[in-house]
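User: Can you help me understand a structure? I only have the sequence.
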Amino acid sequence: MTEWSIIWDARGAFLNGALNTLILFILSVLAAFAMGCVAVYLLEARNALSTTLRWAINLMRMLPFLVLAYLLYYGLPALGFKPSAWSAGLVALATYHAAYFAEILRGARIVLPAGQIEAAKAHGFRSARLFWRIILPQLVIRTRPLLGNQLIYALKDTAFLTIITVQELTAAANSVQATYFIPTEAFVVVIALYWVICICLELALKWAGRLGAKRGFEHA
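Assistant: Let's start by predicting it. Here is the structure, written out as tokens:
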């Protein structure tokens, strides 16, 4: 039996790992983006909460992702709460990348022309309605390439979760190579699957850009 025939026989493990990776990725980035948007909205105010939130975002960005995953999975049991590996991984991904989404959107908010905001206020937009209907859509449009890069970073960070026993794509490759001693072939398959997912993400972002241009949100 050749190495590649072994890989083919173990295709179920790779497909299950890829599916788990996709589920983790989709759920975590949806949660992270939502938290990032809320964080930017709260930063609009100049008060103690916004100052605390700004410090929290900076601290999260300075923390290596793997350390955060370790803290949640191995540290929380010491406080009487034992999350599953899946839950710890999902929370770590969502919390970590929420800080980056917030920082990306905040950077765009700083340079957003004030004239648009003043015009919206003149038409009766206030506070939450102003942010969610006028400001946030423009921030997302302006930062689409950066948000796309962050999505790819989030996808790659799922590979770290094999350290806390999450059965994702890298864990599947580890299992196959440890059983059959074929590390090269196992990880070539993993690289190919990550590439396919990243290419699909790039195509989805380009499609979103064309759709936005067609509807007049941005120039093609």
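Now, to help you interpret it: Residues 36 and 102 are 4 Å apart (CA to CA). The chain has one domain: 3-214. Let me know which part you'd like to focus on.
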